[in-house]
Amino acid sequence: MVLCYCGRFAIVRTSKTDTNPGRRFYCCAEQGSNCGFFMWFDPPMCARSTELIPGLLKSKMRADLLEHELRTGLGSSTRNQADFEKLEQEISKKNTQIKYLLVIIAFLCLMLLF
């Protein structure tokens, strides 16, 4: 464990800068502290890693966003499917009622003819 300048245990965070993407570092655990403690947790990255990692992080963020959209879309799709099935049942019920009424109308027409 690493202690910061104010005597607290330092926490590990991940850099999101273009110069050190994904590189972890120690900093003071107190949010907004003026302690100023900073120490790298990971060794420096090679130049190639520094070039590749930002693109990989963006790709991961896009994939996570698409996954989230897909999951929320599936939820609404399930609701839409339930609504669709309910409407199908209502249509089937109405069709049965129409057939019943047509039989009654046909019977009444036959009675009027005789």
From TrEMBL:
<dbReference type="InterPro" id="IPR010666">
    <property type="entry name" value="Znf_GRF"/>
</dbReference>
<protein>
    <recommendedName>
        <fullName>GRF-type domain-containing protein</fullName>
    </recommendedName>
</protein>
<dbReference type="GO" id="GO:0008270">
    <property type="term" value="F:zinc ion binding"/>
</dbReference>
<keyword id="KW-0479">Metal-binding</keyword>
<keyword id="KW-0863">Zinc-finger</keyword>
<dbReference type="Pfam" id="PF06839">
    <property type="entry name" value="Zn_ribbon_GRF"/>
</dbReference>
<feature type="domain" description="GRF-type">
    <location>
        <begin position="4"/>
        <end position="44"/>
    </location>
</feature>
<keyword id="KW-0862">Zinc</keyword>
